[in-house]
Amino acid sequence: MLKKWIKKRNYKRYNNSLSHYAALSGFTAFRRSLYQKIARAGNRRHTSFTILRSYFLKIGAGACLAGIVLLFFQQPALKLLENMAFFRVEKPIISKNIIVSNEEIEFLADIPATCSIFSLSEHELAARISAHPWIEKAVVKKHFPNEVRIEIKEYHPVALVVTEGDKLAYMDRTGSVFTPAVPGDMLDYPVITGMQGLLEEEKKEVIPDIVTFLKYLDKEDPNFYAQMVSEIHFQGGDQWLIVYVMDFDFPVSLGKGNMRDKYNNLKEIFARAYKPHGNEVPIDDIKAIRMDYSDQKVYIRKKIKSG
């Protein structure tokens, strides 16, 4: 009986030992397989890195060689490209011009018929076009192989200024006087007078008020707009600026500053004066409008009717 029990126990121990050995062997095999996979992946990454490094080294060497060749032969190569008809500049594409015609811009651009896109200077071309008195700025862009685009920014006149010698010149929205008026030019703008002989510092003081008032006139409100104003006169003193309205002989003394409110007040006055109600003064009965007092009120002086 004892022998049977010992034999049975030894059999179990043997089986357990075999199971343990098999488990250890399986883990070892798994670990070995894992290490082999990691090693193979590392070899692949190393191989890929080596290939990429070799590839980029070849590109770099080729670029250096091309640079050296171009350094010694750049003039003949560039000359060859310039003489190719494929890169010959076509008629320029011009945009955003209203006052200045395409023909005038092409004349100023003066691009030779055989001009290559490589020899064309954007800066020089823009400078030639900007020499036109009505062109504030020209932007030139080259597009390979043979296209040139020219974008024009023109001056936007808002008034005429009487300059020295009683000559007329155009003023833009910033208050800059950019070109004299010549016969045939459009002259339907308010005329600014009284600026002759002013020092630059004095002009810097008065021009902002004129520009601001003109900005609101340019909104083309049906009751009060730029074409209704015939003259803006710099008077100085308390009256500062005096506005004369077309078809009416009465002055409007604006005074200094606060031009937005004064424009709005005039707009209201004209809207009511054309269609008066109650005690409102009809437009034909107005002798003068004063807006130059320190209390910022509007005073309307009526004409004295005879008889």
The helix content, as a percent range, equals 40-55%
The tally of strands reads 12
What's the N-to-C terminus distance?
A: 160 Å
CATH topology call of the largest domain: Rossmann fold
Instruction: Provide the low-confidence segments as ranges.
Output: 2-24
Q: Write down the Rg.
A: 43 Å
Mean pLDDT across the residues is 80
In DSSP terms, counting alpha (H) and pi (I) runs of 4 or more, how many helices? 5
Net shape: elongated
* Strand and helix order: HEHHEEEEEEHEEEHEE
Amount of beta strand: 15-25%
Largest sheet: 9 strands, mixed
* Strand-pairing-aware structural class: alpha/beta
Question: Do you know the CATH architecture of the largest domain?
Answer: 3-Layer(aba) Sandwich
Report the CATH C-level class of the largest domain. Alpha Beta
How many separate domains? Answer: 3
Identify the strand order in the major beta sheet.
Answer: 6-5-4-7-8-9-10-11-12
